[in-house]
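Hi R.,

Here's the chain you asked about this morning:
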Amino acid sequence: VYYVHDLLSAQVFADNKLVGTIRDFYTNASEQVIFVIKTDGEEIDIPFTKEFFLEVNLVEKKVIVNLPEYI
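And here is the predicted structure, written out as tokens:
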């Protein structure tokens, strides 16, 4: 069990490549959204759902995601 704030500063990976780092989160009308700073400095938001967040490793501060098509 973990809380979303436990993910702050975790590294985000997709397809075995480092995407960026989790910097913040917020809740909109329907779900929590994770705010990520990509390695190129771009800012992206990823809905915090099982569809996109495939694995969370709190010990290694690492998450594996399936990026939305619009990113």
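One quick note: The radius of gyration is 11 Å.

Cheers,
M.
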